[in-house]
Here is the input.
Amino acid sequence: MSKKATNIVAYLGPIGFIIAFLAGDRVNSRFHLNQSLVLCICEILLSVAAKIAGYIPLIGVFIRIAIGFLSFVMFILWIIGIASAISGTEKEIPLLGWIHLL
Here is the structure.
């Protein structure tokens, strides 16, 4: 898989990340692989927190509303990341781009 294809596939959720990591150009796509991994982990953590908040009476509703807002922010960050991958630039996503896992 070419660098650009690997960059784009990496942003297609956890399965896309695994495919890009195993079958793609890991060396040249390390930046976008890292960015997509951070986004995937944050989304998983948000969904777990929303599930837990569902069991908390009264205040859980407000927590779930806040988590819904954060999920929308994560969607915007995903759009920024995939747009960067499509254009071929290595622009860090706001708020989470400084985290390096790979």
Notes: Residues 11 and 36 are 5 Å apart (CA to CA).
